[in-house]
Amino acid sequence: MTTYVLVPGGHMGGWLWQDLGDRLRERGAEAYAATLTGNGDRRHLAGPGTNLETHIEDLVQLIDHVDAPEVVLVAHCHGSFPALGAADRRPERVSRIVYVSAPLPMDGFSVHGLVDEFEPDPAVRDGWRQRAEQAEDGWRILPPSPDDVQARNSVAGVPADALARLVRLASPQPLGTLTQPLRLSGATAGLPTSGVFCTGTGTSIATVESLVRSGDPRFRVLTEPRVTFFELDTGHWPMLSAPDALAEVLLRAAAGEGQRVPA
């Protein structure tokens, strides 16, 4: 039986995965949804010192308390950073990481650092910078407004009631979780990885092919046999807009399926 640990992105708690977790259990898998410190019903536990290492430790503790020899880590959006950090600390317990509509985390980069380095749109870079500068009390970024949710990410296919719940339950995001660089030991160098692109956001497997063609050596890892990719014809929130399709993709990813990108 495959066991999944589901990691939400910024401003979100484990509640985001409720429908997806149900679909996985119906298919004979087990699923545990993480709520990271400062988010969801743990929002009251955050403070100025809450950072990426805090979220990594949250996941390490969850992995340690799951009664399964191995887990598949599924990370949405920039939940990819704590997910990879936790896998680096518990490589023997993680069989695969699946990134869902998520950036590729890199050693030495924070979420903000990755945006500064690779985001081609200056308006997007400025938006990230401004939200950091306007952080409440200097350490927490307020949750997005209804207009912001729809402006920043594609909500294609998300039912109106699910979108209203997403906005209502979004929590402030501790700034340190986005600005502290990820530090890796190299323990995950051979870890199987899958990426799930949501084409409604404007990204696809063709995006990976373009990165590889750029010649940047940091993207060679994307051509390794252990790395596979999938596409879903939906927006940024597939656990809300297409839970059945996403569950099927996660089962296939755990089995080692998916498209590979040639060098």
From TrEMBL:
<dbReference type="InterPro" id="IPR029058">
    <property type="entry name" value="AB_hydrolase_fold"/>
</dbReference>
<dbReference type="InterPro" id="IPR052897">
    <property type="entry name" value="Sec-Metab_Biosynth_Hydrolase"/>
</dbReference>
<dbReference type="GO" id="GO:0016787">
    <property type="term" value="F:hydrolase activity"/>
</dbReference>
<dbReference type="Pfam" id="PF12697">
    <property type="entry name" value="Abhydrolase_6"/>
</dbReference>
<dbReference type="InterPro" id="IPR000073">
    <property type="entry name" value="AB_hydrolase_1"/>
</dbReference>
<feature type="domain" description="AB hydrolase-1">
    <location>
        <begin position="5"/>
        <end position="249"/>
    </location>
</feature>
<keyword id="KW-0378">Hydrolase</keyword>
<protein>
    <submittedName>
        <fullName>Alpha/beta hydrolase</fullName>
    </submittedName>
</protein>
